[in-house]
Amino acid sequence: MHSFKNPLIIALDVDNVEEALKLAEKIGPYAGGFKVGMQLYYSAGQEVLLRLREKELPVFVDLKLHDIPNTVAGATRALTRQGAAILNVHAAGGKAMMRAAVEAARDETEKAGTVRPLVVAVTVLTSFDQESFKQEMGHSGTIQDRVVAWALMAREAGLDGVVASPLEIAAIRKACGPDFTIITPGIRPAGTAINDQKRTLTPGEALKQGADYLVVGRPVTAAHDQLEAVKAILTEIHSM
Ligand SMILES: O=C(O)c1cc(=O)[nH]c(=O)n1[C@@H]1O[C@H](COP(=O)(O)O)[C@@H](O)[C@H]1O
Q1: Is 5 a catalytic residue?
Q2: By its UniProt entry, which NCBIfam families does this protein fall under (predicted)?
Q3: N or C terminus: fewer CB in 10 A for the chain?
């Protein structure tokens, strides 16, 4: 497995390589890893992954793949070759799609003699609350039940873990066991803006619930002093 020096993954949700590298330079000595999502990858492509490799921190490539199994397998191969330490697919894409992704990652790394990325499933996005989940997604049950069902399905498909809100961590841990990786966005240090997130906890609370990795974007990227924001989160984490 790629090694993260601490559980804090900073989402580099910016528009270009220069901005991403500037941020990575500043917070690199403190962060556990970086996340490159749709905004940056669709703007800068694989160049940003190549340049971030120079920082020697693992990168979670968050493109939330969701397509037929063959297409997702091809995309997974590409992101694996580009050095992703973690990559994600939507659990809603189904078991065959998830299995195709993890098999593609395994095959690609076995051929290259490299370390396989963790392949994790996105469950219910942290921007849903129970009300919008019911109204817009047509699910009658609770978010937690859906997240746990998808987590179990991801585990059966051979995935390494899931992305879920901090509110579901304990239930996932109970259902999927200690070795299943749980990555949680929707992290909001006390007193920071919630923005479009609906299901949130503070960094310390999320770790206490049993998260393996915390994904944090705007509480750091939009902070007046980004470095101070990262350090404050680490202080909270270390005091746990
Ligand atoms: O897959 C993700 O990383 C993800 C899943 C999810 O359910 N919610 C979610 O916010 N994310 C990502 O996590 C990051 C959270 O950013 P902030 O809300 O700015 O902290 C963003 O880059 C999102 O794309």
Answers
A1: no
A2: PRK00230.1, pyrF
A3: C
What are the pLDDT digits (tens) for 89-124?
999 999 999 999 999 999 999 999 999 999 999 999
* pTM of this structure: 0.98
Ligand 1 centre from 147 Cα, in Å?
16
Q: State which residues form the domain around 35.
A: 8-238
* ipTM surpassing 0.95: yes
Count of structural domains within the chain: 1
Give the Cβ contact number of residue 83 at 10 Å: 18
**11 pairs with which residues across the strands?**
35
Question: Contact 101/89 with Cβ under 8 angstroms?
Answer: yes
Amino acid identity, position 130? Q
Write the CATH number for 75: 3.20.20.70
- DSSP line for 76-131: HHHHHHTT-SEEEEEGGG-HHHHHHHHHHHHHHHHHHT-PPPEEEEE-S-TT--HH
